[in-house]
C-alpha cells in the first residue's frame, strides 16, 4: 500500500531565501508524524505546503497516493487545526463545524447527523449555539478539532494547536489528542516547538532546523540515538549532557577521560564502542547519572563529584556540576543526600551513551 | 519624571477640588456656547420674518415664529432664473450621494480584503499608490477629469458626478477596510480555504459579517464628503444636475435687491440636515469603528 503522505525533494523559497531544503518524508496510514524544531526552522511552512496554503518551489507531494503538488487545499482531502483556532467569529459553534459541509453542498440531514456525532464525541453539545467569543480557550480548541473531525479526511494537520493553552490544559488536551488518534486510527501531521509534545504524541518525529531535516525516527530512536548535537540538545528535558572528552584505546574497549576543575579527571571505560577519534563530545542523559547508592550494580561506573546546585523537582532532584568545562545535570532520587557545595558519589551508565564529532556535530556510534 | 506619581497622588482639599470643578464646567460651557452660537443664530434667523430681522437684534429670539422662510427655501427660492427652491437640488444630491457612497464602500471593502488578506505581488505598491490618491488636491484633477467625463459621454450628468465621487472615494474606503481587515488573523482565511470556500465566499460569509463598524465609518465619511462637496459639484454639473451645495450658493449669491437672510439660513440648514442626521444615527458606531482593534476569536 502506498504511503498516506509522501513529500519528495521539496524545496520552498521566498525570493532568494531558501526556507525548506530537500525535504523527504513519508508516513503510513495511522501514523502520527510530529514536526518539531525551534521557531523559524520551517516546520509551519512545511505544514502549510502540505496543506496547499503555500505553493512549493520544487519537488512533489503525494497524499493517499495521488500527486497533490498543484491541487488546491480544498481538494486535498485534509483538515487543519490552527494555533489561533481560526474559528469564524460571527458564526455559532454549530455553524463553524458545518461551514465546510455547507460550502460543499452536503444535504442538511447529513450535516445534522455528522454535527451530532462529532459534538457528542468531543462533548461540546451544550456549546453548539454559542459564538466563539463566549468560549474558553479549551472549548475553542475542542470546536476547532470538531471542525476538522467532521470532515473525516485522509490526513489531519495540526499547527501548534496547544500553544495558546495554559500548562494544565495543555497536558489534558495532549492526552485527549493522543486518545483521539488511537480511537480513530487517523493519519496526522502535527507541528510543535515543544519536544515533550513531540515525544508523547508521535509515532514518528521529524526534527528540523534551518529548513533542513536533522533526523527522522521514532521517539525512542530520536531520544536514544540522536543523529547530531542539535537533536541531542533539543530533544529531552533537562537536555542531554554534552561533555567534551578525550578517548584512548584501552584493551578491548575505550577509555574516556573527562577533565575537571580542581580535581582529577573522571575516567570511564566503554567496552561497546571502539574506534573513536581522540577528541569527542560525549552525550549522557541526566537519567544515566544517578546516586551511586541507588544505582543498579552492573554496568555503571562511579565517581565522586562536587555538586554546585541542587534543584528539587518533586519526583526527582536534579544536581548540577561542572565536568569538562560544561554544566552537567544528574537526575538523582527525590530523597537524595546531595547538597550544594558537597561531594556526592555518582554512578555513570554508559549503556545508552552517544558520541559526537566535535567539529561536524555528527553522531559517531 | 520620577516624582510624577507623587504629584498625581497628592491630596487636594475638598474646597480646591470644588473650585477646580467649577472652573472646568465654566470653561466647557463657554466653549459649547462659542460653537453653538452660529447654529443658534441660523435657527432663530430662519424663523423670523424679514421685517423682524431688519429691525431686531441678531441674537434675540423671534417675537413671532414663522416657517415662511423654510417653505420658500424648500420650494420657492430663486437660484438664478429658476425659482424652485432647493428641493430639486436636494434630490440631485441624494441621487449622487447614495449610489456613490454604496459603490465606493463596496469597492473599498473588496480592495481592502484583497490587499490585507490575499497578498499578491506588488500589493504594497498598489496600496501605496491608492493612498497617494487620497492626498492629491482636487483642483489638480479638474481638467483631466473633465476630459475623461467628456470622452465617456457623461459630463454634466448625475452619473458623471457619481463616477467622480466613486473614484475619489476609493482611496479612503480602501484604507479604512484594509486597516480593519489586516487585524483579522490570516488563519481565518486559511481555515476557510481548507473548508472549501473561495474568494467571494470567504468575503461574504466571514469578512463581511465582521465589518459593520468599519462599514459605518466608511459610509459616514463618504456621505459627508460627497454631500458637502462643492468643487466637483460646481465643475461637473449643468443646469438641472447641480447638487444642493451649488444651489445653496446660487440662492445666497444670486438674489437681487433685498437679502433674504431668513431664507438663506433655512436653505443652509436644509442642506446640512442629512449629514447631521447621519452622525446622530450612526455616530455611536463611528467611534466604535474608529477604535475597533483586533478581532478576538
Brief account:
Chain A has 8 helices and 21 strands.
List the helices and strands and how they pair.
The complex is a heterodimer of chains A (365) and B (297).
Chain A: E1 5-14, E2 17-27, E3 32-36, H1 43-51, E4 58-63, E5 66-67, E6 78-81, H2 93-103, H3 108-121, H4 137-149, E7 155-159, H5 167-184, E8 187-192, H6 195-201, E9 204-209, E10 212-217, H7 219-224, H8 229-234, E11 241-250, E12 253-260, E13 263-270, E14 279-284, E15 289-291, E16 300-306, E17 309-312, E18 316-323, E19 326-333, E20 343-349, E21 354-356
Parallel strand pairs in A: 3-8, 3-9, 6-7, 7-8
Antiparallel strand pairs in A: 1-2, 1-4, 4-5, 9-10, 11-12, 11-14, 12-13, 14-21, 15-20, 16-20, 17-18, 18-19
Helix pairs in contact in A: 2-3, 2-4
Chain B: H1 4-9, H2 14-46, H3 50-55, H4 68-75, H5 87-117, H6 123-134, H7 138-152, H8 158-181, H9 186-194, H10 199-207, H11 212-228, H12 231-235, H13 244-254, H14 261-291
Question: Order of strands side by side in the largest beta sheet of chain A?
Answer: 6-7-8-3-9-10
CATH fold naming of the largest domain in chain B: MetI-like fold
What proportion of the residues of chain A form beta strands (DSSP E)? 35-45%
Number of DSSP E strands of chain A = 21
Query: Based on CA inertia axes, which overall geometry of chain B fits?
Result: flat
The gyration radius over C-alpha positions of chain A equals 25 Å
**What proportion of the residues of chain B form beta strands (DSSP E)?**
under 5%
Average residue pLDDT of chain B:
87
| Largest interface chains and counts | A-B, 27 and 19 residues
- The CATH superfamily of the largest domain in chain B appears as MetI-like
| Through-space gap between termini of chain B | 39 Å
The N- and C-terminal alpha carbons of chain A lie at a distance of: 34 Å
Q: What's the β-strand tally of chain B? A: 0
Amino acid at each position: 500500500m502506498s504511503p498516506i503522505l509522501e513529500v519528495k525533494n521539496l524545496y520552498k523559497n521566498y525570493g532568494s531565501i531558501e526556507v525548506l531544503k530537500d525535504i523527504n518524508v513519508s508516513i503510513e496510514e495511522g501514523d502520527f508524524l510530529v514536526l518539531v524544531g525551534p521557531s523559524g526552522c520551517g516546520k509551519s511552512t512545511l505544514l502549510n505546503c502540505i496543506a496547499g496554503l503555500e505553493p512549493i518551489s520544487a519537488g512533489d507531494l503525494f497524499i493517499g497516493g495521488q500527486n497533490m503538488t498543484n491541487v488546491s487545499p480544498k481538494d486535498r482531502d485534509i483538515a487543519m487545526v490552527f494555533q489561533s483556532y481560526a474559528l469564524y467569529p460571527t458564526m455559532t459553534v454549530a455553524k463553524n463545524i458545518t461551514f465546510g459541509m455547507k460550502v460543499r453542498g452536503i444535504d442538511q440531514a447529513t450535516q445534522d447527523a455528522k454535527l451530532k456525532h462529532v459534538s457528542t464525541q468531543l462533548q461540546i453539545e451544550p456549546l453548539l449555539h454559542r459564538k466563539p467569543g463566549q468560549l474558553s480557550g479549551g472549548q475553542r480548541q475542542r470546536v476547532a478539532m470538531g471542525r476538522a473531525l467532521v470532515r473525516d479526511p485522509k490526513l489531519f494537520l495540526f499547527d501548534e494547536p496547544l500553544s495558546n493553552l495554559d500548562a494544565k490544559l495543555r497536558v489534558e488536551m495532549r492526552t485527549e489528542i493522543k486518545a483521539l488518534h488511537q480511537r480513530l486510527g487517523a493519519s496526522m501531521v502535527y507541528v510543535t516547538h515543544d519536544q515533550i509534545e513531540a515525544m508523547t504524541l508521535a509515532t514518528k518525529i521529524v526534527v528540523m532546523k534551518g529548513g533542513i531535516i536533522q533526523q527522522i525516527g521514532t521517539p525512542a530512536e530520536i531520544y536514544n540515538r540522536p543523529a547530531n548535537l542539535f537533536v541531542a540538545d533539543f530533544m529531552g528535558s533537562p537536555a542531554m549532557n554534552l561533555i567534551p572528552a578525550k578517548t584512548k584505546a584501552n584493551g578491548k574497549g575505550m577509555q574516556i577521560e573527562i577533565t575537571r576543575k580542581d580535581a582529577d579527571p573522571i575516567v570511564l571505560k566503554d567496552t561497546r564502542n571502539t574506534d573513536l577519534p581522540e577528541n569527542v563530545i560525549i552525550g549522557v542523559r541526566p537519567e544515566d547519572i544517578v546516586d551511586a547508592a541507588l544505582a543498579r550494580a552492573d554496568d555503571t561506573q562511579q565517581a565522586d563529584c562536587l555538586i554546585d546546585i541542587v534543584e528539587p523537582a518533586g519526583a526527582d532532584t536534579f544536581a548540577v556540576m561542572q565536568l569538562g568545562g560544561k554544566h552537567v545535570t544528574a537526575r538523582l532520587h527525590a530523597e537524595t543526600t546531595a547538597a550544594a557545595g558537597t561531594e556526592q558519589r555518582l554512578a555513570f551508565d554508559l549503556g545508552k551513551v552517544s558520541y559526537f564529532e566535535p567539529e561536524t556535530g555528527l553522531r559517531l556510534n | 519624571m520620577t516624582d510624577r506619581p507623587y504629584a498625581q497622588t497628592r491630596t487636594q482639599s475638598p474646597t480646591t477640588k470644588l473650585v477646580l470643578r467649577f472652573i472646568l464646567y465654566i470653561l466647557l460651557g463657554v466653549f459649547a456656547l462659542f460653537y453653538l452660537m452660529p447654529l443658534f443664530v441660523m435657527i432663530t434667523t430662519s424663523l423670523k420674518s424679514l421685517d423682524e430681522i431688519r429691525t431686531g437684534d441678531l441674537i434675540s429670539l423671534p417675537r413671532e415664529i414663522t416657517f415662511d422662510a423654510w417653505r420658500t427655501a424648500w420650494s420657492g427660492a430663486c437660484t438664478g432664473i429658476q425659482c424652485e427652491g432647493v428641493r430639486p437640488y436636494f434630490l440631485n444630491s441624494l441621487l449622487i450621494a447614495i449610489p456613490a457612497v454604496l459603490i465606493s464602500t463596496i469597492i473599498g471593502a473588496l480592495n481592502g480584503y484583497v490587499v490585507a488578506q490575499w497578498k499578491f505581488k506588488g500589493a504594497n505598491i498598489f496600496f501605496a499608490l491608492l493612498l497617494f490618491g487620497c492626498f492629491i488636491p482636487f483642483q489638480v484633477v479638474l481638467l483631466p477629469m473633465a476630459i475623461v467625463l467628456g470622452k465617456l459621454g457623461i459630463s454634466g450628468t448625475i452619473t458623471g458626478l457619481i463616477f467622480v465621487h466613486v473614484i475619489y472615494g476609493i482611496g479612503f474606503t480602501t484604507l479604512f477596510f484594509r486597516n480593519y481587515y489586516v487585524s483579522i488573523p490570516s488563519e481565518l482565511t486559511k481555515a476557510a480555504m481548507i473548508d472549501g470556500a473561495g474568494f467571494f465566499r470567504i468575503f461574504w460569509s466571514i469578512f463581511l459579517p465582521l465589518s459593520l463598524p468599519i462599514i459605518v465609518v466608511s459610509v459616514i465619511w463618504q456621505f459627508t464628503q460627497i454631500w458637502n462637496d462643492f468643487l466637483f459639484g460646481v465643475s461637473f454639473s449643468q443646469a438641472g444636475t447641480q447638487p444642493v451645495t451649488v444651489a445653496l450658493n446660487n440662492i445666497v449669491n444670486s438674489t437681487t435687491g433685498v437679502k433674504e437672510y431668513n431664507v438663506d439660513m433655512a436653505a443652509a440648514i436644509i442642506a446640512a440636515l442629512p449629514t447631521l442626521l447621519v452622525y446622530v444615527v450612526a455616530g455611536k458606531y463611528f467611534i466604535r469603528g474608529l477604535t475597533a482593534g483586533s478581532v478576538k476569536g
